[in-house]
Amino acid sequence: MTKAIEIENFSYRYSDGTAALGNITISIYHGQKVALIGPNGAGKSTLLLAMAGFVKGEGKVLIDGLQINRANIKKIRTLIGSCLENSDDQLFMPTLFDDVAFGPLNMGLEPEQIKKCVADALGMVGLSQMADKAPHHLSAGQKRSAAIATIISMSPKIITLDEPDGSLDPRNRSNLVKLLRNLPQTLVIATCNMNFAATVADRVILLDKGGIITEGKTKEIMSDAALMAEHGLEVPKSWPSN
Length: 242
Fold this sequence. Notes:
Strand content: 25-35%
Shape: globular
Number of helices: 9
Distance between the termini: 21 Å
Strand order of the largest sheet: 6-7-8-3-9-10
Largest sheet: 6 strands, mixed
């Protein structure tokens, strides 16, 4: 497998000097579904921002072999798409079609190409019949799927998601799990929900206080009750059957 994301000795401090991430070194391979787990304030969201080039620190961050810098950032933004914690932040156009078309339009695609990208993305997330609907009329689960569609329409190789299951009821959470497990892209998901992580991810990276505690196969790491309790986390109640 080739590396989708490679981070070497990355550190980041907030503007007030508080350390957010310290000496992070990880490799994530194409095709993997990775969950960043850890308590609130562990650095999960900041690490996602670093992967997308939204925060700059010390060390190296490479996306599909390209180092994040001024020369490469435009290309990198076509390789990695980020779903924010609040879906409303990504849905701001009059209709869902317009929202999903926004990325392809700014990529310079032709009108017919844009229509196909939108149709394919909405079909993948099960919202084909909602194209003409105003985003603010969608349910919480539909908004989450719509936000993912705005990323899928640009065909990135990598998708990051920040607490994607937040505020979802059991039915919509189950639908989201199915969607994420079926996506072909490399996924990196920050979550505080251990049951969700166990269901979606094949690998987890445990962070606490801005550093990596351990990483490995999901069940191997998350079934360690002592380790999980030490970092304020719970062992998942169940594991996927496959």
